[in-house]
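Because discrete structure vocabularies remain unfamiliar, we turn briefly to a single example record, giving the amino acid sequence and backbone structure tokens:
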Amino acid sequence: MKAWWIAPAWKTLHYFAIAALVGIVGLVDLRIFGVAKGLPLRPLQRLMPWATLAFAVAAVSGYALLQINPANALGPPVNVAFAAKILFLVFIGLNDILYFATGLKRQVDGVGAGESASASAKIVAGVSLALWVGVVFWSRMLTFLAGAI
């Protein structure tokens, strides 16, 4: 017999992990845009291991939620919100690969207090912010679109 509190506990852990992840990534992305220019970027980048941990917790808790109620996401029919969320996460991964592979990370680490990041870095940060907003949006839509099509 399943305990009634298991799914809410996993959901709470999942929501906290996503909040921490999006909060940290959003903070760094907004600084790349030029918000809070008085802060150098390198110390903010030191928060990224915490974002990595939050991503891992979100992935594990998301997998647990998927195992608890697979029909909510995988259907039949497949939940459009779940598919969109996964697609946005794939795009975030590609955006991150671009960020590291092009050397933008090293360049952004060198942005000091009062300095601006390059236009390329701002584009990658803007795409990151938009994609994370999409992940949060589609996460919330999962419940509303379960079984819809």
